[in-house]
Amino acid sequence: MIAEELGMDPMEIRLKNGIKQGEETATRSVIVSGGLEEPIRVAVERSHWSDKRAKRTEEEGIGMGCVGIMCGFPMGFRSGSACYVKINDDGQATLVTGICDTGMGNESMAIQIASEVLGIPVEDINLVNADTEVTNLDPGAYSQAATFVGGNAVKRACEDAKRQILSLAAVKLKHPAEDLDLRDRTIVSRTDPSKTMPMRWVVREAFFQGNPITGTGAYIPKIDFEREWVKNPYGQMAGTFTFGCSVAEVTVDKETGQVTIPRFYSAHDCGNPINTMAVEGQIEGSVQQAGVAILMEETRWTDGHLLNPDLLPSRIQDAAGLRHACDRTVDRLLQRSGRALRSQRGRAEHANECLQRGGLCRLQRFPRAPQRVSAHSRPGPESARSC
Amino acid sequence: MMPANFQYRNPKDVQEAIQFYREYQGEAVYLSGGTDLVPRVKLGLEKPKALIDLKRIAPLATIDDQGEWIRIGSLVRIFNLKQESLVADYFPALKASLEATSCESLQMRGTIGGNLLQNTRCLFYNQSEFWRKSKGFCLKMGGETCNAVQGAKACFASYCSDNATVLCTLSTQIELSGPEGERRVGLDELYSNKAQNPFVLQPGEILTAILIPKKKTLGGYEKVRVRGAIDYPLLGLAFSSVNGTGKLAVGAVGPRPYVQDVTQPWQDTLGETVEALVRQVKPVGNTVLDAGYRKRMIPVLAGRLVKKVMEGAK
């Protein structure tokens, strides 16, 4: 709306004002990596934003929305995560971590990280997680922290175990530990192919020496624990931040008020995606939940009674319906920046914001139900134009 | 939500089904696909002593070309019916409404007979027993007045069969079997015009078949719903035409579909026909879309539908 008032392209106003790496937020949190610029540029390029915006009509518009979300948030002593890894005498590993999984793939994420660090396949890793009888506290599925905080703790614990294995292997192989690595259940040399040994031999040797291989690791995001909401609302409020930009093509049937989204683009800088498929699923889920639900989801009340208390009259888009609302498949863009481990989670807000910008920005109420759009577009032709 | 206890019977033929109905002295309901009935039983809107499951009665699930009529057994699944070449060739409007009925997984469960005999719907009525008790029972539940239109002494629930709206444009007849014998009536005679109790059926009567005159028609169906993949119609417009004249019907805005003849669909004279339809409908604020919007969309969709069908015929 501001861009429209200023006669600016919504992309330009975001690029000018979007926060960049190294800058501080209004409450003095430093953006340690990422920033809005890259996601905006990727989304703009892939959606052919400028061409489509130039060709927009009263019935077809294109809109943009952005999101920045904190990742690894202060939650007192629950801000950090700890992990223990035990290397078993057959070369398999057991991970003990507080990471919990409510369907987003966090368990496989933890195992993938351990697999990569320890050089053993995922099927050799046993996971004991989210059981306070045996695991330490963990942020849980909150503050986009599972990969960033819990995943980094797993990485550190496995690196600790790896160090112990390689240092013992260096003695057995008479070769410097710095040149050794773990690959395919085996200790290998980076430079000398003859220096190799099964990992389980070293694990058993450690056991005989009375020092079984167990690694520990913890990660606490660098946050300002003095910061609080009222008396001292300044300081680093999250370990890092994640940014995304979405572009929606929107069509409006001015007579019926039906809104469709022929194509939706989402570029989300999630850092290094551990499980690409899971990240794509998160982004698609966000588009479905917010990007499409914004067209239909609402609570209707009558004299204090909720008229749509269940999933039949409460309009939440189903998977099959996504194809009806978005005529073609959701085109997802995943930017891989390979920086620190950060949140895998796509966020709903940017999709939300995006639709608000696309086509229908003068409507003040949600959802953009056909009755509202239709009523809104009756008096004049302007209302369907994108801004 | 757990339904109240009921007995389950599965008769092998229509006569046995009627016999079971007699045994329960009217406190039984017939079950076909169950996509309407089972949620009603779970919500406590029906508390039958027995469900008499008709699904084992194979003759009810056949489609016959009788020469002058196409006879569709009431237990034919919506998904199977929409794939019948007879339907596509002769009744394109029906093909469209079958396609628009709910979603494919429910089409595989639901039957055409059950779709016609689905009860009327209202946001104030299709709720759990807990909800309805807290709000106070409406007319349709045995209360004093309507809850959707406060103080009204009439029920404004809507009949939401997509396919009935189309079948009303095709001069459809239905066959019924009951304790008093068999009868065949026009589909329009099925409706009582009262949303509270929308069908004129004798106790124990079973809808056994739907008969459509075998004439090649032009036609189509337009539907307003929020979710394109699943929802009941919030408004349905059907149009079928034979030899230059046709019928236009509107559904989901009253206790029955309303039908008007369209004498010259080739010409742009729909205005009076649509006005006549709009005068009959009584949408109220008992769905997720406003009544005013649904009424306003009748001429819009009717115009589009007839234009599309007649242009396709050229």
Explain what you see.
The complex is a heterodimer of chains A (387) and B (314). With 387 residues, chain A is an alpha+beta fold. In chain A, 32% of the residues lie in helices and 20% in strands. Chain A has helices at 2-6, 10-17, 37-47, 49-54, 106-118, 145-173, 199-208, 276-292, 319-325, 348-357, 370-377, and strands spanning 60-71, 81-87, 93-97, 125-129, 180-183, 186-189, 196-198, 214-219, 240-252, 259-269, 301-302, 305-306, 331-335. In chain A, the strands form four sheets. Chain A has a four-stranded mixed beta sheet, sandwiched between helices. In chain A, strand 3, helix 5 (106-118) and strand 4 (125-129) form a beta-alpha-beta unit. In chain A, helix 5 (106-118) packs parallel to helix 6. The N and C termini of chain A lie close together (7 Å). The longest helix of chain B is centred in the last third of the chain and has 23 residues, at 291-313. The radius of gyration of chain B is 19 Å and the shape is globular. The mean pLDDT of chain B is 94. Classes of the chains: A alpha+beta (387), B alpha+beta (314). At the A-B interface, helix 9 and helix 11 of A face helix 8 and helix 11 of B.
